[in-house]
Every structure is written in C-alpha cells, then in structure tokens.
C-alpha cells in the first residue's frame, strides 16, 4: 500500500521551467463519478444523513497507476446505498490517466 494523497498538482518541465497543468487535464475522475443515480440527490441524502466522504488518491510504490479511493471516513456498509463502488484504478497513458471501471474493495 502506497501513500495516500488528498491534493495533487501537476507540472510539465520544458528544460528551463515548470508549467502548471490543471488536475482535470491529467486525472479525469471526480467525487461524483462514484455516486449512484441523480448525483445532486445522492449528495443531498449523504449530507442529511451526515455520511461524509472524500476522494483521495493512493500513489503507487511501483509503476505509474494511481488508485482513486472513495469514502475514508465511515465503514463500507455506510457508503453502499450511495455509490456504485469505492475504488477506481487510474491507468497512466502518455501524459494523462485513463479511467477504469469502478469497483468495490472492502476494508
């Protein structure tokens, strides 16, 4: 298991300086991608029930793929009514990560 990261920043180095690249240009995944049904309604229900979650990224110890992890505050059972899965592997592909299927990983 690698380190978990809550914020990522990406830069390109041209040999002289670094140029910032927006995360959305490199990682095409967000919190709402994991939600079932109507995203706004699901977010509202989670808030009403005080079922809080976050999306963090597990960096690799080897290779280039990242794991997007949903949840991180409550148990697996708390999130199952709201989401289609709690993990997604982000596969490195020539300067950008590609999404893979969302799946369940029990803690």
Q: Which structural traits does this protein have?
A:
3 helices; alpha+beta; 107 residues; two-stranded antiparallel ribbon; elongated
Quick summary:
The protein has about 110 residues and is of the alpha+beta class. It is built from three helices and eight strands; from the N terminus they run βββααββαβββ.
Summarize the structure in words.
It is built from 3 helices and 8 strands, in the order E-E-E-H-H-E-E-H-E-E-E. The chain has 107 residues and is of the alpha+beta class. Strands 1, 4, 5, 6, 7 and 8 form a 6-stranded antiparallel β-sheet that branches. A two-stranded antiparallel sheet has the order 2-3. The radius of gyration is 15 Å and the shape is elongated. The model has no long low-confidence stretch (mean pLDDT 89).
**Biggest sheet overview:** 6 strands, antiparallel
On the 0 to 100 scale, the average pLDDT is 89
Q: Structural class given helices, strands, pairing?
A: alpha+beta
- The rounded distance between the terminal residues' Cα atoms is 13 Å
Query: Hey, roughly how much beta strand do the residues contain?
Result: 25-35%
Coarse morphology: elongated
Identify low-pLDDT runs: none
Strand element count: 8
The quaternary structure here is single chain
The Rg value, from CA coordinates, equals 15 Å
What's the layout of helices and strands?
Layout: E1 4-5, E2 10-13, E3 18-21, H1 23-26, H2 39-48, E4 54-58, E5 66-71, H3 76-79, E6 87-92, E7 97-98, E8 102-103
Antiparallel strand pairs: 1-4, 2-3, 4-5, 5-6, 6-7, 6-8
């Amino acid at each position: 298991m690698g380190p978990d990261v809550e914020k990522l920043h990406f830069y390109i180095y041209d040999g002289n300086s670094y140029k910032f690249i927006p995360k959305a240009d490199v990682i095409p995944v967000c919190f709402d991608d994991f939600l079932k049904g109507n995203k706004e309604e699901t977010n509202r229900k989670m808030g009403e029930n005080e079922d809080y979650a976050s999306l963090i990224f597990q960096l690799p110890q080897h290779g280039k793929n990242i794991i997007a992890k949903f949840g991180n505050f409550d148990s697996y059972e708390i999130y199952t009514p709201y989401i289609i899965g709690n993990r997604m592997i982000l596969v490195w592909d020539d300067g950008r990560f590609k999404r893979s299927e969302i799946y369940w990983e029990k803690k």
